[in-house]
Amino acid sequence: MPPVDRNQPKRASSSESTYSVMEFMHQFPDDETCLQWLWRRLDSTDGEHTHCPKCGETRKFHRVASRPSYSCDVCGHHIHPTAGTIFHKSSTSLHLWFYAIFLMSSTRCGISAKQLERELGVTYKTAWRMFHLIRNMLMEQDDEPLSGDIEMDETYVGGYRKSAKGRKPAPKSTVFGMVERRGRVSAHVVADASMPSLYPYIGKTIANGSRVFTDEHQTYMNMPKARFAHEAVNHRSGVFVDGDVHTQTIDNFWSLVKNGITGVYHNVSPQHLQGYLNEYVYRYNHRDDLTPMFFSVLGQIRRKSA
Predict the structure, then answer these.
(1) What are the respective helix, strand and coil percentages of the chain, to the nearest 5?
(2) DSSP letters along 98-124, please?
C-alpha cells in the first residue's frame, strides 16, 4: 500500500479539484470559525481592532460568548458580523451556510435545493432560501463590458405547461446572452428578442471597437455598426461556420445551462430564472481562476448599504 496518512488526507496531484471537502472541513470545522472569518473579512483585519461607531475611533473588541457578536472593550458597543449580509437574522448555522456555498461552487452542473436539504438536514424551505440568496447576492453578474471577439444570441428556456383551472399555459422565457471568445459571458432574461429588449444590454455591455458575431436574426442585422464591427452567419441556409464567423461559443454555453436545468432542477419558474442564470454565468466566468471558486464566492459577501 502507498505510504499515506489516513488522518491527513491530501488531494491527488492529478485531481482537477482546487479545494476539497476535507480542506473545507479542516479550515471551517464549526460555526465559530466561520464567524471569525466573517469578522475579519468585514470588520477587523487583525481580528481584534476595528472602528467603534459609539466611541468614534478604533478600539479593541472581544468575542461575546452568549451571542454571535463582538463587543468594544471600552464602551461595550456590539458589532454583529452577520448584520446586513445574506446571513442577517438567519437562525441557520453559519457552518451550514458556508457548506452550502462550498457545494454550489464546487459543482459544475448545479445542485438542487432538495439535495441541499438532504445534505444539511434543514427544511426544503430553508435550503431553497439559502440557494436563492447565494445566487442573487453572491453570484450576481457585474457590469464590466465585454470586448474583443464577441458572440451574441438569444435562446428560450422552459416550455408550455398545463395549468390549473384551464388557464393559458405559460410560454418559454427568452434569454439573451453575449460571450467573449475565451473570456467572460453575460446572460439576462428579456421580454422578447426585439430591438427594444436587446439593445439596452448590447449598448452597455459591448465595448467600443469590438467584433461581434451573430446569426441572421433581423434584430441583429439592424444594429448600429458605428461602435463595433458585425458579421453574421446564416443558420437558415445551413451554414454554421464560415471561417471565424460562428456562434458556437454562446451555443455551447446555452447547452450547459439547459442541460443543467433539465438534469438538476428539471424546471425553473420564469420569475427565478435570472438567479439560475447568475449561477451558471458565475461558474463560467470563474472557471479558470487560480483561487478556488469557494473563496471567490465568499469574497462577494458584503453588507447592504444603508
Answers:
(1) 40, 20, 45
(2) HHHHHHHHH-SS---HHHHHHHHT--H
| Ranges assigned E (strand) in 68-166 | 69-72, 78-79, 149-157
**In degrees rounded to 5, what are phi and psi of residue 5?**
-95, 105
Q: What is the pLDDT of residues 97-141, one digit of tens each?
A: 999 999 999 988 889 999 999 999 999 999 999 999 999 999 999
The tens digit of pLDDT for each residue in 74-95 reads: 999 999 999 999 999 999 999 9
C-alpha cell at 305: 448599504
- 176-211 burial, b at 16+ Cβ within 10 Å, e below that, comes to bbbbbeeebbbbbbbeebeeebbeebbeebbeeebb
Question: Considering just the CA atoms, what is the radius of gyration of the chain in Å?
Answer: 23
C-alpha cell at 294: 469557494
Q: How many CA atoms lie within 13 A of 17 on its CB side?
A: 14
Main-chain dihedrals φ then ψ at residue 213, nearest 5 degrees:
-120, 135
CATH 3.40.50.10860 fits 149-271, yes or no: no
Query: Which grid coordinates belong to 109?
Result: 452542473
So where are the chain's domains? 149-271
Q: Confirm if 51 and 110 have CB atoms less than 8 A apart.
A: no
**Residue 243 — left, alpha, or beta (φ > 0 → left; ψ -120 to 50 → alpha)?**
left
Q: Which residues contact 8 (CB under 8 A, 6 or more apart)?
A: none
Q: What is the mean pLDDT of the chain?
A: 90
Q: Count CA atoms within 13 Å of residue 41 on its CB side.
A: 20
CA distances in angstroms from 207 to 19, 115, 121, 179, 217, listed in the order given? 34, 40, 46, 12, 21
